[in-house]
Model the fold of this input.
Amino acid sequence: MATPLRLFILAGEPSGDRIAAELVRRLSERVPVEASGVGGEALSVVGVRSLFDMNELSVMGWADVLPRLPKLLWRARQVAQKIIKTRPDVAVMVDSQVFSEIVAKQVYKAAPDIPVLLCVAPAAWAWKPERATHLKPHFREVMAVLPFEPAFMRSVSGPETHYIGHPAVNSMAFRKAIPEHGPLLLLPGSRDGELGRHLPFMRVVAERLAAHPKVTGFILPTPRRLEANLKQRVADWPVKVDVISGEERKASAMAGAVAAVAVTGTVTLELALAGVPMVTTYVAERRQAKLWVKYKVKFASLPNILLDQAVVPEILQLEPDVEELVSAASALLDSDDTLQAQVEGFAKIRRLMEAGTVEDPRIDPAERILRYKAEK
Done:
């Protein structure tokens, strides 16, 4: 029997947890795997027992980070020391960009021979392109989930980068036909700060669109850890909202949805890969808004970024104003041509994500990880 691959893997939020679990599954098809690390429900299913609750790392924006900073730095030291002590064949940090970089620097300083890989490239193409060069030499390579990222990394002298695709390509079936009517999906995010800023928006959207002839109800997919909490928070809404969890139920909801209202995050890529029309939104903190202006961010949602055009509406706000979001969602539902145009754009995204580019075709991430074991 082959010698087991000793893997340390870290994920700090639900989307990264799903990507990490897919990596472990792919590796397990090739060789025996002894995996440890930090993760959530998806990684636990594939046998990874988390060092601590992954949700401690699920923060975004200074308002979320600052109160937790001492504990986050302590957790980073804990993770780095675990990697240094156990000396895995390879360590893979999935997303959680700032936290992962802190860990990687500490590991490199104490044990530079331990290969540390970053899965999910930082959005340096949108924020601080110069940041890409700072990833070297702490990360041996980057495994990107967006097809244009390897070329960008080369252009800014970033680490060696390969396109590995996204698990949603396999888990989300693309539907070409839009239902004449069906539930409207509400996707307010999964971080505490995001939920606090976006749930009031979603309530008004549900109330105002409940009578729309194409809308038969509302579904709010969320991670399992938040299901009970969100059910309580929507219990007094003026319209009924079904709060669901689990990847199978989310995929089923996307298959039948007439459209979605979603925060600009990974879920917008999942919706596009499933062929679900959407309106995207984000209520930013002031520091985030200043970064948008400073770096002249063209688009915030992944479908628009991938196609470099405004395929889906983006309602980006500093001062919350739900009227614009309701208006955009209503306009989308009222226009069959707009709905179809989005689906046609999503079909292009699907083809691009499945194959990659001519210069950087999609590769199996297991091959990239296993080569480090082979080099020992």
Observations:
- The CA atoms of residues 331 and 338 lie 9 Å apart.
- The mean pLDDT is 90.
